[in-house]
Amino acid sequence: MTEPPAPRRPFSVPRDLLDRYNQAGPRYTSYPTVPEWSAGFGPEDTFAALDANREQRAGVPLSLYVHIPFCSKLCYYCGCNIHLARDHALVDRYLAAVDWEAGRIAEHVGDQRPVVQLHWGGGTPTHLDPDQIRRLFASLVGRFGLARDAEVSIEVHPAVTTPAQLETLAELGFNRISMGVQDFDPGVQRAIHRIQPFEMTRDLVDLARRLGFVSVNLDLMYGLPHQSPERFAATLEKTMAIRPDRIALFNYAHLPSIYPHQRALKELPGPELKLALLETAVDTFLAHGYRYIGFDHFALPDNELVRALEERTLRRNFMGYTTCADSDLLAFGMSAISELAGAYFQNQRKLFDYLADVERGRLPVVRGMNLSRDDQLRRDVIFALACLGSVDKTRISRLHGVSFDATFAAELAALEPMAADGLVALFDDRIEIQPRGQLLVRNVCMVFDSYLRATPGRTFSRTI
Asked: Which helix (H) or strand (E) element contains residue 296?
């Protein structure tokens, strides 16, 4: 075959492709995606899935996630499931509920399943004071044993995180930390209602490193009000001065029909400007030695994400990219999503619904899905594209007992225009994402999503 010529900037999308590819689509933290799951999947289905998993996956490691929804104020760009609270008693009530939920789940999890990854997300996990942090940590490790080399990570907001909290986290064994930034530009910060001076973030990163945190991630966001390539370049320069081990560069998803507070954001950049912001960031990161992991993640060459990418063990789940390729994910708290080898399930999305279920002794699961053989086949293809940048047809055929080309004849035909546009390269034995296709990998994954054709009209963010 004749491969398309490489563009002068490898990670760049020609502007004449914008209209064709700037469409709404999933971010593929799961397949099938959450809108396809059944509201009829409840506690008994969850226990059945856990019991089957215990028998089929004995000895397989676990990953744990805890959703801590509390924030002291609302950031206007936010698409997370949060609860604004200053009530200390409410936080204690929530931690008691998470403790009960973890206990019920632990009853259905076999012994000898070490926890190789523990992550606290939000909301703002450092809304908890040091005593609450210790209580939650003890609740989890008392039921699920941490592996000696476990990745123990937490998301923090520099504006509300104190040295005492960081010292407590380090004392407990947290070794990775992620900080939201979005943009260091004061005008952008005022527009999105998140004031966070550069010096505040830099100083907290310095403290984390002195305390022994081995990996620091910073979150940036493009597509916000007042951003321009020139102004965003200043944020990128400050980010490079901190030199985080990882960077997550998120595409702002403007979905005011789902998140009404986002209506406060005006004069958002259009697709062409957003693409220019993205390309400016990618060029900067690559010039400073970062590796493009996939989707919106970058890491320094010695980071474990890069090693996992090179060893083809990188995986994607609701916590983003992970090095823990063969582990089942158990998640606790409101809206938390668990992922077993063949099933997903999610908790109540609203705080007081979650508390009401737990406090009357009901597991707070409200929807989920047992995956069919076709779901698992397509999930493996989509995640290979998203995590590894290529699909080994022979491996997929052998693993699932199918003929790849026969099973995906329609999908391979649909990839031909993408190949002509330089997004993918199609070979007899594999499909490879090309550099410009890396920026549009969601579009490539969508080709293999059978639910998009069956249930059109789902609400997703745009790919650019």
From this structure: none
pLDDT value, residue 14: 86
Q: What is the torsion angle, in degrees rounded to the nearest 10, for the CA atoms of residue 114, residue 115, residue 116 and residue 122?
A: 180
Q: 36-370: which CATH architecture?
A: Alpha-Beta Horseshoe (3.80)
Spatial separation of the C-alpha atoms in residues 234 and 238, rounded to whole Å? 6
Helix and strand totals (H; E) in the chain:
18, 19
In this predicted structure, what is the pLDDT of residue 111?
82
Rounded distance between C-alpha atoms, residue 400 and residue 126, angstroms: 43
Would you say the C-alpha torsion 403, 409, 411, 417 has a positive or negative sign?
Answer: positive
Q: Per CATH, is 15-27+373-454 categorized as 3.40.640.10?
A: no
* Residue 53: both structure tokens together: 């998993």
**pTM of this prediction exceeds 0.90:** yes
> What are the C-alpha distances in Å from 327 to residues 61, 110, 122, 251?
5, 13, 22, 28
Task: Return the axis-axis angle of helices 271-287 and 229-242, rounded to nearest 10°.
Answer: 30
Rg (CA), the chain: 22
* Dihedral over Cα of 282, 386, 349, 53: its sign: negative
d(CA 67, CA 51): 23
Per-residue pLDDT, averaged over 65-70, amounts to 97
**How far is Cα 352 from Cα 334, in angstroms, rounded to an integer?**
9
71-118 tens-digit pLDDT = 989 999 998 889 998 788 999 999 999 999 999 999 999 888 999 999
**Whole-angstrom Cα distance, residue 383 to residue 379?**
6
Q: Show the DSSP H helices in 318-456 as ranges.
A: 351-359, 373-388, 393-400, 404-407, 409-420, 435-438, 441-446, 450-454
The highest-confidence range among 102-116, 265-279, 368-382, 449-463, by mean pLDDT, is: 368-382
Three-state SS for 392? strand
Residue 166 CB: number of other CB atoms within 10 A? Answer: 22
**Which of 98, 91, 93 is closest to 144 using CA atoms?**
98
- Within 10 angstroms of residue 84's Cβ, the number of other Cβ atoms is 11
For the chain, which residues make up each domain, given as ranges?
Answer: 15-27+373-454, 36-370
**Among 160, 170, 168, CA closest to 196:** 160
Residue pLDDT, tens place only, 297-353? 999 999 999 999 999 889 888 878 888 778 999 999 999 999 999 999 999 999 999
Distance between CA 176 and CA 211 in Å, rounded?
A: 11
Secondary element (H or E) of residue 94: helix 88-106
